[in-house]
Amino acid sequence: MKNLHKPIFTILILVLSTLTAFSQNKVVRLDSMISKANSDGLFSGNILVIDNGKELYKKALGFTDESKTKKLTLDYRFHIGSIAKEFNAVGIMMLKEQGKLNLDDRLSKFFPDWPKWADSVSVRNLLQYTSGIPDVKWKTIKGDADNLADLMNLQQLNFTPGTNYNYNNNNVFIQRRLIEKITGLTFNKFVEERILKPAGMKTAVVDPDENTPLMAKSYTNAGKHGDLIYPITGWTAVALDDFYKWEKVIEKFKLINPASTNELLTPYAPGKQAGLGGGMMQGNKVILHKHDGISVFYQALVVGEQPKGRVIILMSNNKQNNIFEIGDAVEAILDGKPFDQPKKPQVQ
């Protein structure tokens, strides 16, 4: 019997050795690709790669701000642009599951003193960016109060709600005001208490400023500094570990159920954005979640593929408009395929 076990044991050792070597080769290729991208001026930021449910690669590259005097570490937080809109979308669905709103409710139910157009815009329209409400007037507003005043003075929508699509931040702004109206909490406090804390996201911050510690500052190649204070509030900044926890919250339905998650992954039309960006479900399983974000000179990307046990997170504080190119290179390496090394950045 002992002699029969030896060949099986030997085969197992060979298989494990082959798998280990294959994983090590992936790490070498990942490090080579992202390090070259960094040295070429293509990527300053932090990266996390989970594959087959295990951490494969994690690294900080580049500098904390435009002075380029201090190197990034894995503890630094980044703005993630549109990905931060997931927090208000999930918040809306949490309130729906609690019976405090319906997706077909009109805004006038909650804001009876708003203009007539609030009678025709539903909560679903906000989540799917089909409200017809014009975008924020970024050049003239200086805060939430200014933006709300613009909405109160709005006489006509750009189109009949539910008939077209226009991705803009007034849909997000109103979602946040709706959460405040229903809960009696400021949106920032709601996120901190009802989302970040239950998710175990201990280092994430909402609306960081120039004095927030361990906050990566965004900048251009020419050394221009990106402001941290935005005209409308409610933007959550995260470090790699908390970003990964958030992805697991989505995939494991820790805050909202599968039906609500599917609602936030279903766009108005193919190729359009929904509350969680983009993705798909199969039964009660999220098989793909993909979302990117841009904010001033920040850029971020998250890709979650549960069938592969895979999560890819990229966060940059020196936007080069190549985050998908880098993400594609990472996926190709993980799949053992040839990849295109990201090209030199465009002049900013």
Helical residues, percent: 25-40%
The CATH class assignment is Alpha Beta
Quickly count the domains.
Answer: 1
CATH topology: Beta-lactamase
Q: Largest beta sheet, briefly?
A: 6 strands, antiparallel
What's the CATH superfamily, by name?
DD-peptidase/beta-lactamase superfamily
Question: Strand content of the residues, in percent?
Answer: 15-25%
Strand order of the largest sheet: 2-1-9-8-7-6
Low-confidence stretches: 14-21
Number of strands: 9
| Shape type | globular
Q: Tell me the number of helical segments per DSSP (H or I, 4 or more residues long).
A: 9
Order of helices and strands: HEEEHHHHHEEHHEEEEH
Using only C-alpha atoms, the radius of gyration works out to: 22 Å
CATH architecture: 3-Layer(aba) Sandwich
How far apart the termini lie comes to: 70 Å
Arithmetic mean of pLDDT: 93
The structural class is alpha+beta
Textual characterization of the structure:
With 348 residues, this protein is of the alpha+beta class. It has a single domain (76-319), classed as DD-peptidase/beta-lactamase superfamily (Beta-lactamase). It contains nine helices and nine strands. It has helices spanning 2-39, 85-97, 123-128, 144-152, 169-183, 187-199, 240-251, 258-265, 323-334; strands spanning 45-51, 54-61, 78-79, 205-206, 236-238, 278-282, 285-295, 298-305, 310-316. Strands 2-1-9-8-7-6 form a six-stranded antiparallel sheet, sandwiched between helices. Helix 1 runs antiparallel to helix 9 (323-334) and helix 2 crosses helix 5. The radius of gyration is 22 Å and the shape is globular. It starts with a helix and ends in a 14-residue tail after the last helix.
